[in-house]
């Protein structure tokens, strides 16, 4: 039996809701078809945004959306995406599939999407190939409420009032697609560009996010902390789970048990990455004023057969739900430093929460994990510990990965991932100084290959979990192999 201890007397940090964000790039069918179909589309839409996707994202409580890239951001010139659609410039999306980008989805459309979703905006600027003036003017265009050339231009284009811009990224992956810069060079560039990312009002203080490291590049973090420090509000981290290598990544729904475990073990590397970047940041910022922002994470497989390799379209199985569950538990546990994260990406690209096919849409196993974990948003992380065995022969892969929080109304939320393919886990949970009267639970589980298809959309879904019994100070539960379970304790 595994012992699970939750300590409500140990209130640690607020789990910022923005940890549950997603990322939408002008890549493949993420923006076009995935969220934006245009007003004249036969697909039901409001101002061009497809209703099915918007409703699903709202239902999962999407708090923040990152846009327009990704690598696309450092080639994007925002003025191409404003004004009458007929006169907007067309360009080739050189990074992603060489297709024509007609700029019909631009700044106004992005904020309209955020409005419909009721979520916050995270916009990434072009440092790699854009000018300081261009970046500065974009922020002025989006946020200035007075009389100025950019505010006037926004008004001419139909939006009298500025929008609320919560986060602004000063470049993306500037160590590679965003300009192939060294950490030192980027740090200097950041200081220069960020100087002109102005705060135009007290009501809208824009949090500036610097391009951070790729995975375990600790030197990048060190240089940025040393040279930029408090001139940034957040430092981003990108880490993708690739089961094989970049040449042969592996398939989304066909994989062996060994490949399953390789995937889960690589996803669990996130724990070490967050822990070590946090420790490094502590040396310069012990008060944790600068956030670690994991603004790209998720699984990355070979594209589905017959699809454009530049579109990064992949299916999504129960294995992905395990990755999502364990990763979100890691972020919760580090919520004193991790203040935002954005899974890559929202629709039709990499580890998506939804897939579309013409007017059809399905929700992926990953979607249900986000929906399930919604209860953690803005709750307070509690001290917790679970006994468990290590499933990895050489490295670290706990069978059970958990986090626990308390909501404002006193409900304790616990999410437990069982990563084993074969072993259930008999868990005895004790909650310190608490008399428990009711526990409800829901589960996402299945064969790790199970996934939803357009001809079988409900194969994987959230179900009530009745394998739980209430004890005087907690509960006992047998969680099945390959499962994500949420317990709500009153
Ligand atoms: O998410 C796909 C790509 O992965 C992004 O454009 C880039 O930032 C990263 O390398």
Task: Explain the overall architecture.
- This protein is α/β, with parallel strands linked by helices.
- It has two domains: about 120 residues, Immunoglobulin-like (Sandwich); about 350 residues, TIM Barrel (Alpha-Beta Barrel).
- The protein is built from nine helices and 24 strands.
- A ten-stranded mixed sheet has the order 21-20-24-18-17-16-1-19-23-22, with helices on one face. It has an eight-stranded parallel barrel with strand order 2-5-8-9-10-11-12-13, surrounded by five helices. A two-stranded antiparallel ribbon has the order 3-4.
- The chain is globular, with a radius of gyration of 22 Å.
- The two termini are about 25 Å apart.
- The model has no long low-confidence stretch (mean pLDDT about 95).
- The protein binds alpha-L-arabinofuranose (AHR).
- Alpha-L-arabinofuranose binds next to loops.
What's the total helix number? 9
Beta content? 25-35%
Sum up the overall morphology in one term: globular
Number of strands: 24
Major β-sheet strand ordering: 21-20-24-18-17-16-1-19-23-22
Radius of gyration (Å)? 22 Å
How many discrete domains?
2
Largest sheet: 10 strands, mixed
Distance between the termini: 23 Å
Helix content: 10-25%
CATH topology of the largest domain: TIM Barrel
In short:
With 490 residues, the protein is of the alpha/beta class. The chain contains nine helices and 24 strands.
List the helices and strands and how they pair.
Blueprint lengths: L1 E13 L6 E3 L21 E2 L2 E2 H9 L4 E4 L23 E3 L5 E3 L5 H11 L2 E6 L6 H12 L5 H8 L10 E4 L12 H13 L11 E4 L7 H10 L6 E8 L15 H28 L6 E9 L18 H16 L4 E7 L9 E4 L2 E4 L1 H9 L6 E7 L13 E7 L5 E7 L6 E7 L7 E7 L17 E2 L3 E4 L2 E6 L3 E7 L1
Parallel strand pairs: 1-19, 2-5, 2-13, 5-8, 8-9, 9-10, 10-11, 11-12, 12-13
Antiparallel strand pairs: 1-16, 3-4, 6-7, 14-15, 16-17, 17-18, 18-24, 19-23, 20-21, 20-24, 22-23
Helix pairs in contact: 3-4, 5-6, 6-7, 7-8, 8-9
Bound molecules: alpha-L-arabinofuranose.
């Amino acid at each position: 039996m595994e012992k699970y201890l939750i300590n409500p007397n140990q209130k640690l940090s607020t789990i910022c809701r923005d940890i549950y964000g997603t990322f939408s790039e002008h890549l493949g069918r993420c923006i076009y078809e995935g969220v934006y179909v245009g007003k004249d589309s036969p697909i039901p839409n409001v101002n061009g945004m497809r209703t099915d996707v918007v409703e699903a994202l709202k239902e999962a409580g999407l708090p923040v959306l990152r846009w327009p890239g990704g690598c696309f951001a450092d080639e994007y010139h925002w003025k191409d995406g404003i004004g009458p659609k007929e006169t907007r410039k067309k360009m080739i999306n050189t990074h992603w599939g060489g297709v024509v980008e007609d700029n019909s989805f631009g700044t106004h459309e992005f904020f309209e999407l955020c409005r419909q979703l009721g979520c916050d905006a995270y916009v990434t600027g072009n440092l790699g190939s854009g000018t300081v003036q261009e970046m500065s003017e974009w922020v002025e265009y989006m946020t200035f409420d007075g009389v100025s050339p950019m505010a006037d231009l926004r008004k001419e284009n139909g939006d009298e009032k500025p929008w609320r811009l919560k986060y602004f990224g000063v470049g993306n992956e500037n160590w590679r697609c965003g300009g192939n810069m060294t950490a030192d060079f980027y740090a200097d560039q950041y200081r220069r560009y960020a100087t002109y990312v102005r705060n135009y009002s007290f009501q809208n203080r824009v949090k500036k996010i610097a391009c951070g490291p790729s995975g375990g590049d600790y030197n990048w973090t060190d240089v940025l902390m040393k040279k930029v420090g408090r001139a940034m509000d957040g430092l981003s981290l990108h880490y993708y789970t690739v089961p094989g290598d970049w040449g042969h990544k592996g398939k989304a729904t066909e994989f062996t048990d060994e490949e399953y475990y390789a995937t889960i073990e690589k996803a669990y590397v996130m724990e070490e990455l967050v822990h070590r970047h946090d420790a490094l940041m502590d040396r310069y910022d012990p008060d944790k004023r600068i956030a670690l922002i994991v603004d790209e994470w998720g699984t990355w497989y070979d594209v589905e057969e017959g699809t454009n390799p530049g579109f990064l379209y992949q299916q999504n199985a129960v294995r992905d739900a395990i990755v999502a569950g364990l990763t979100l538990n890691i972020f919760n546990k580090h919520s004193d430093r991790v203040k935002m994260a954005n899974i890559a990406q929202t629709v039709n690209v990499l580890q998506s929460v939804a897939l579309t096919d013409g007017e059809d849409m399905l929700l992926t196993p990953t979607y249900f994990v986000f929906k399930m974990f919604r209860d953690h948003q803005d709750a307070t992380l509690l001290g917790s510990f679970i006994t468990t065995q290590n499933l990895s022969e050489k490295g670290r892969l706990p069978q059970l990965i958990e986090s626990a929080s308390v909501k404002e109304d006193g409900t304790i939320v616990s999410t437990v991932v069982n990563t084993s393919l074969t072993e259930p886990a008999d868990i005895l949970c004790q909650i310190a100084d608490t008399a428990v009267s009711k526990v409800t639970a829901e589960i996402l589980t299945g064969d790790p290959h199970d996934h939803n298809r357009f001809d079988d959309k409900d194969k994987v879904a959230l179900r009530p979990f009745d394998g739980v019994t209430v004890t005087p100070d907690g509960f006992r539960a047998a969680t099945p192999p390959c499962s994500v379970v949420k317990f709500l304790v009153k």
